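Milestone M4 deliverable, item 7.
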Amino acid sequence: MNATLEIVWINLKAIPQRLGLSLVIVVGLAGVVGVLTALLAMSRGFEATLTATGRADRAIVLRAGSQAELNSGLDRDSQLLVGRAPGVLRGADGQPLASGEMLVITELPLTRSGTAANVSFRGVEPAGLAMRSELKIVEGRSFEPGLREVIVGKAATRQFDGLAVGGTLRLRGADWAIVGIFATGDSHESEVWTDLTTAQSTFNRQGVSSVLVQLENEAAFDAYAAALKQDPRLNVDVEREVDYFSAQTENFRRQIGVLSGVVGVIMGIGAIFAALNTMFAAVAARAREIATLRAIGFGGMPVLASVLIEAMLLALAGGLLGAALVWLVFNNYAVTTLGQGFTQVVFQFRVTADLLVTGVLLSLAIGFIGGLWPALRAARLPVTVALREA
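Output delivered:
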């Protein structure tokens, strides 16, 4: 053990003499860890935004087979039947807490580029505001029913131009006054909201895209869903609100998973070859030193361990550098991407501790693989050959 530590210490003291070669490993692995962690942080942030949307004691009802609000449509009769089914909580006025909601796509210019991007424009009923306890007006006030007034999500104001309180949106040939900004802490912050009746009139719509209902409790969902399925007048699908929005991340998670895997394999192979070249060069440069150590009685195992430890320490430095950079640059960095309905969803990268640890462990694994072969060669190199190569 002491012999190994002595050789490791000698190796580490010699690193400044081959700083350029050592930096190849450090910088290369920092890039691997940084890119992969950033991709996974993007996926984690998008997933967290959508899975934070909704509650288990609320249900969303769509036309059967629709899968998403933009593809769904329910007429007035279906909307009323859905809201009056058993299991729906009633408000203080005795009316069921059910909100028919209309979702359409509009376009707004992105702040960072000025190019137009799709934004969800949602018409809601008063019950839709009342049942969403997570919704807070953080600036201005809520819209007045019957007027062309809108409130915009806090996240949307950071990504799109022209959404300040007091401003005006020009949609479908009509001017809409921006009267407030709301926060929900979920994907709804990427949307623009207005009164349902006003939206239907402006966009010439008769029905709704979905109905959101407040259940009496979480346990009431099964009975509520069964009642809708058994009603011959209805042809609908019903999900817990939280499950519906969580499912919207499935395709994105799959795409990021494939992308991360491909990028990880390509960059990992490159980093392994960089580590191999670097450590082979280090062994060659120290051939006389290794031969001398072997000649004075040091065994092959301490030499092997010293080369391998050096490679892993350089890999650790690269992993920590990559983890630190991605945390400083990307943690809580806000971006937009297309959601399931081809509208922009604003979310933040989430560089979590487990992702950073995974990145560092990956760099150590690459350092071990890249350093193993040169270490074995150094340990097996005969003294006479080492002296001749020196």
